[in-house]
UniProtKB/TrEMBL annotation:
<keyword id="KW-0238">DNA-binding</keyword>
<dbReference type="GO" id="GO:0000156">
    <property type="term" value="F:phosphorelay response regulator activity"/>
</dbReference>
<dbReference type="Pfam" id="PF04397">
    <property type="entry name" value="LytTR"/>
</dbReference>
<dbReference type="GO" id="GO:0003677">
    <property type="term" value="F:DNA binding"/>
</dbReference>
<dbReference type="InterPro" id="IPR007492">
    <property type="entry name" value="LytTR_DNA-bd_dom"/>
</dbReference>
<dbReference type="InterPro" id="IPR046947">
    <property type="entry name" value="LytR-like"/>
</dbReference>
<feature type="domain" description="HTH LytTR-type">
    <location>
        <begin position="37"/>
        <end position="143"/>
    </location>
</feature>
<protein>
    <submittedName>
        <fullName>LytTr DNA-binding domain-containing protein</fullName>
    </submittedName>
</protein>
Length: 143
């Protein structure tokens, strides 16, 4: 049995398949280093340990990272990107504009309107936990 194929149609279909594969695996093909992320400061790029990060926060259109040594760095992606990327590494989205390292939480402070605030090791600022995130947070810490 002989099957004749239209080569133009075949190449079109192969192109569609390749474009679909590329778009579906765009984020999954990003290189991942388990313990470090790339951050920038003063037009320089550094690799910092995830363990040294206290929290990520959104500042207007940028996402910043605060570390244990009170340094502030900038990262290229959104908080949602980092939330998904660090889901299994003890980072928790505690409010619309914050992603906190749960390993650095030393105290949970009741706040007004049934919300909470988190005190982090080596940080003078308290990080708010929004009402929509409280139930998930309490389940995570076994409260």
């Amino acid at each position: 049995m002989l099957i004749l194929l239209d080569t133009n149609e075949t190449y079109k279909n192969i192109g569609k398949i390749n474009r679909t594969k590329a778009s579906n695996t765009k984020n999954s093909m990003l290189p991942v280093i388990q313990n470090k992320i790339a951050v920038s400061k003063n037009n320089r790029t550094f690799l910092i340990d995830l363990n040294s990060i206290l929290y990520f926060y959104r500042n207007d259109t940028k996402v910043n990272v605060i570390t244990e040594d009170k340094a502030m760095y900038c990262v290229n992606h959104t908080l949602t990107f980092w939330e998904k990327r660090l889901l299994n590494i003890n980072f928790f989205r505690c409010q619309k504009g914050y992603l906190v390292n749960l390993e650095k939480v030393i105290e949970i402070i009741p706040y007004f309107n049934s919300t909470l605030s988190l005190k982090l090791k080596g940080c003078t600022e308290n990080i708010p936990v929004g009402r929509t995130f409280i139930k998930k947070f309490k389940n995570l810490v076994g409260w």
